[in-house]
Amino acid sequence: RLLDLLDRPLYTKSSTNLEQLLGLLECVVNPLSNLPRDSDHDHEMIKKDADTCASGGKEWVEIPRPLISHHRLQLLCKILRMESCKDSSFVKVNNIAKRLCRIEANRDCILRELAAVAQGLGVDAIRDLRSLSIRLNDAAKLHQEQLLSEKAALDNKLDPEQSSNGGSSTSQSTLLSGTPSSAVTLSTSSSELRLLRVLQALHTLCGDTLSDDNGKKSEGTVFVTQELVTLLQSINLELLWDQLTSCLRVVSVLEGVARLDEVDEKGVGENNNTSDADQEEDIDGADGSLTNGKKLQNSVAGLLTRFLPTIEAFFVVNASCTSDMGENRKESEVSTGEGNESQYSRTSGEIPKQKEDDLDLDMLVGGRRLIQFVAANKVLLNALLRSNPALLEKGLRAMVQVPKCRPFLDFDVKRQWFKTQVRRLRQHASRRHGSLRLTIRRKHVFEDAFHRLRLRTADEMRGRLHITFVNEEGVDAGGLSREFFGILAKEMFNPNYALFTSTEDGCTFQPNPNSNINPDHLSYFRFVGRIVGKAVVDGFLLDAHFTRSLYKHMLGVKPTHHDMQAIDPDYYKNLKLILEHKLDDIGVELTFSTEDHSFGRSQTIDLIENGRNIVVTEKTKEKYVSLVCQHRMTTAIQSQIKAYLEGFHELVKPELISIFTAKELELLISGMPDIDIDDLKKNTDYQGWKATDKEIGWFWSIMFSLCRSEKAAFLQFATGSSKVPLAGFAELQGMRGTQKFSIHKAGGSSGALMSAHTCFNALDLPVYKSEEEMKEKLLYAISEGGGGFLFA
User: Fold this and answer.
1) Residue numbers annotated as active site
2) How many other β-carbons are positioned within 10 Å of the β-carbon of residue 580?
3) Which residue from 299, 410, 652, 714 has the least number of CB within 10 angstroms?
C-alpha cells in the first residue's frame, strides 16, 4: 500500500515528501537483499541458514517474497521521469528496484517498465537536442558569415600580388577561428540526465554486479546479459545518437575545429580511418591542439558539459560489454592455434592485434558505433576529459578499456589518467611499508642498488624513495633521487655487464642475446625492469632509450619487420628488397633458417622445424621475413625480455601501461629530447634579482650560446636531471611538487662559484663583473660540480 502513495500529488509534487516515502519503502524492502540471486541454490541456503540459527539458539524466520502488482511497479518506475525526483530519490528508487528484483516475477516487470520510461525520456531528449541544434546551426552560420565578411575586407586591403600569394593561407586560418562558447546560450535539459539515470539502473540490474555488497567490482567493466541487449534494442535510441552527433559537429565549427562546409560534406564514419602510425604522429598534439594546426578555445569544455549526460548515456549503451574480453581472447587463441609467438609478452598469450581489436568490438553492444563516435569527436572528447579527468574512471571509462578507443586519446590525457592510477598504488604501499631508504656508494651505485633492492617486494618498491650517498651531506628531497636514476640509466648500458647492445646509430639499446656470459644476467634484467618501472611510477625521467621493438614488448604488442629498421638499417633494406622484388631477380636462395655468429663460432638456427632444408618461395617469403625478424627481436632474447618484463610489470601493471603507444611510452620514460631555453626562461622565478638586471641578461645570453650537451649538463647541475618534463618546464618537479626553476642572488664575495639546490630547482647566482667571467664560472660549475652534494 505504500507504493500506492506514489500516485498522490502530495508526494509526486514535493521532492521532500517523495524522498521520505522512498526512504520508508527502502527500509521495508531491505530484508529482500538477503535473498539468494540464484533460485537453484534457494533451498540449500535456507537449510544452511536455519541450521546456523538453531546452533546459535536463535529462531530462523523465512523472508517473505512479495509479488508486487504491475500497476504498483509502474508507479515506482515512473518516479524517474518526475521533476521532483532528485539525485537522492533516484538512488533510493534504484535500491528498492534492486531488492524487489530478487523475486523473478517482479524483476521482469521492473525491467519492462524501466525500458518504457527510458524510451519516453529518449523522445524528450531528442526534442530538446533538436531545439538546441537549430540555435547552434544559426550561431555557426552567423559566425561563418562574419568571418567571410572579414576575409573580404582583408582581401580588399591587400594588393593583387599579396592577395594571390599569401591571402589564401591567411583567410584559411581566419575561417578556422572559433567563436566563444558564451556566444551561444544553452539551456540544460533534465530529460537527458534522467535518461542517463534510467539506463544506469538497467545496466546495474542486468549486469553481473547485482548484489548490494559488491560495489568494488562494479567500478570496473560490468558484463551485461543478453537480456539487457534485447531491452536496449527495444528502446531504440539511434535517433538520439544521430542528433547528438549532429550537435557535436556544429560545436566543432563554433570552436574552430572544423569549417561549416566540411561538416556538411562529411559523415560520421569517415573519420574512422586513423592508423596506428597516424596516431603516433599525433603525440605532438598533447597540449590540446591538433596536429594540423587547429586549436580549441579554452571554453570548449564548458560548452560540452551541456552534452555530458547524453554522451555518458551513449557510452552506457554502446560500451556495455556482453562477456569477458580476456576470456574470449583465450578461447580465440585455442581455436585458432595462435598465441604462441609471444607468450612472454602477454600472460594469456597473444593473437594478432587487428583480430584482437575486432574481437573486442564484437563483444560490445554497439562497438562499431562507439569507435565511429569517438573518432568523429576525438578533439571535443579530449577537451572534456582534460577539464574532468575523473570521467575516465566513470562514464567514459570505455575510452581506456576498449583498445580501439585508446589511440584517440591525446598523450597528456593518457598520462594524467596513468599518474592517477599509480598514485593510488603508491599511497597504498606507503601506508603499509613506509619509505624506501637506500644508502649507496657513489662509485658503486649499480651494484649497491642491485643488492639492496633484489629482495624487496613490489609494494616496498612503491614507497617514497630516499637516497643517501656515503660520505656526502646531501639530504634527499628529490634531487638525490633524480641523480640516482641518472647514474643507473648510464650504468645499465655499461658493456662490462653485457646486458644491452647498441643499435647501428648508437642511440638506442636492446637486450644482448649473449648476455648469458654474465651468470646473473637474468637477475640483472629483472632489476633493470624494476628500476625503469620505479622511475615511471615516481615520475623520474631516464636518459635511456630502448629500441621500438622492446617498447612494444613492454606494451604486449608484437613487433613488425618495420621495427628492424632502427636496429639494423642495412638488414632492413635487404628484407625490403626481398619483399618488393622477385627472389630470382635479386639472385638469392633462402631457407627458413638464420646464421648466428657468437664468440667466433657460427651456428645455423631453424626458424621452423627443419627450416634449413625448406626453401623460401615467392608465396612464403613474407612468412620468412616475419620469422627472421621475430627471431632477431624476440626469440633470440626471449629469456632476457621475460626477466626484464617481470621486473617492470611488478611496478607497472600491464593493463595500465598498455594505454600508450610505443612512441608515447618512450616519451613517458625518457622525456622530451630537446632543451628549450625560451621555455625555461619563461618559467623562471627570481629572488633578489629582477628580469631586467644586466646580470640576468648576461645569464640568458650565455644559456642561449651553450651547445646541446652543455645545456643538458646545466640542467643536471641545477635540477638533478638532464631531461625536460613532458609538459615543458612549467611542470618541473621539486620538493614541493611542481616547482619552477628559480635564480637567487647569492651573498658573499663577488665572483664566487655559482651553486645549486636540486631539491628546489634553484640556482644561487653571485654578482660578476662581466659576461665573460659569468660564463667561465658557469662552465666550471656544471663540469666540476655536477656530481656530488657537499656543504659549502
Assistant:
1) 759
2) 8
3) 299
Helix axes 771-784, 708-719, angle to 10 degrees: 70
344-353 own/partner pairs: CB under 8 Å, 24+ apart: 344/553, 344/638, 344/641, 344/642, 344/645, 345/553, 345/556, 345/557, 345/558, 345/641, 345/645, 346/556, 346/654, 347/654, 350/556, 350/558, 352/558, 353/557, 353/558
Residues 6+ apart with CB under 8 A from 229: 320, 322, 365
Summarised one tens digit per residue, pLDDT across range 572-615 is 888 888 888 888 888 888 888 888 877 767 888 888 888 888 88
The CA distance from 94 to 25, in Å, is 12
Using an 8 Å Cβ cutoff, are 616 and 594 in contact? no
| pLDDT for 215 | 39
44: which residues sit within 8 A by CB, 6+ positions away? none
Predicted confidence band of residue 478 (pLDDT cuts 50, 70, 90): low
In this prediction, residue 159 carries a pLDDT of 52
CB 382 within 8 A of CB 416: no
Nearest to 196, CA basis, from 361, 394, 16: 394
Instruction: For residue 781, give the C-alpha cell.
Output: 660549475
- Res 532: pLDDT: 93
Residue 169's contacts (CB-CB under 8 Å, 6 or more residues apart) are none
Decide if 203 contacts 224 (C-beta within 8 A). Answer: yes
d(CA 766, CA 351): 62
Quick one: pLDDT at residue 62? 64
CA dihedral 129, 134, 137, 141 (to 10 degrees): -170
Helix/strand/coil for 792:
coil
Please enumerate in sequence order all residues whose Cβ is within 8 A of that of 52, keeping only pairs 6 or more positions apart, or say none.
60
Give the pLDDT score at 289: 37
Buried b (16+ CB within 10 A) or exposed e, 306-326: bbbbbbbbbbbbbbbbbeebe
Crossing angle between the packed helical segments 353-362 and 367-376, to the nearest 10 degrees: 110
The single residue listed with the C-alpha cell 633492492 is: 453
